[in-house]
Amino acid sequence: QVQLVESGGGLAQAGGSLRLSCAASGRTISVYNMAWFRQAPGKEREFVARISWNGGTTQYSDSVKGRFTISRDNAKNTVYLEMNSLKPEDTAVYYCNAAALGAWGQGTLVTVSS
Q1: How many CA within 13 A on the CB side of residue 70?
Q2: What's the confidence (pLDDT) of residue 103?
Q3: pLDDT at residue number 44
Q4: How far from 54 is each of 9, 29, 66, 113, CA to CA, in Å?
Q5: Of 72, 85, 81, nearest to 112 (Cα)?
Q6: pLDDT in tens, 9-47
Q7: What is the pLDDT, as a whole number, of residue 41?
Q8: CB atoms closer than 10 angstroms to residue 40
Q9: DSSP string covering the chain, please?
């Protein structure tokens, strides 16, 4: 059973940057695609980015394409989300997901002020 723990959230100004981390424990995630989702207050959880098991393929939602970068370090069993040019509408709780394992982290809050 895998545990996912997100970190790196916090308060940022519009135009600023944050880097989120998702550390996995309990089993390796190196053979699994991983993803980030987010849920803003009063809204449905939405897809943000996905990365293939070897990092060779990435996908992004239109709302973050060109601003966010997903990456992974399989040696560290960790996935990252580099967020640049942040906007107030990026404010949300960000969740790490391993779909094949049915696993979600507890989330980390990102707040972007205008």
Answers
A1: 28
A2: 95
A3: 98
A4: 25, 10, 21, 35
A5: 85
A6: 999 999 999 999 999 999 999 999 999 999 999 999 999
A7: 93
A8: 14
A9: --EEEEE--EEEETT--EEEEEEEESS--TTS-EEEEEE-TTS--EEEEEE-TTSS-EEE-TTTTTTEEEEEETTTTEEEEEE-S--GGG-EEEEEEEGGGTEE---EEEEEE-
pLDDT in tens, 59-103: 999 999 999 999 999 999 999 999 999 999 999 999 999 999 999
Separation of alpha carbons 19 and 28, rounded Å: 22
* Spatial CB neighbours of 47, under 8 Å, sequence gap ≥ 6: 35, 37, 61
Structure tokens at 82: 């580099």
Sign of CA dihedral 99, 52, 50, 4: positive
- Look at residues 37, 29, 33 and name the one whose alpha carbon lies nearest to residue 4: 29
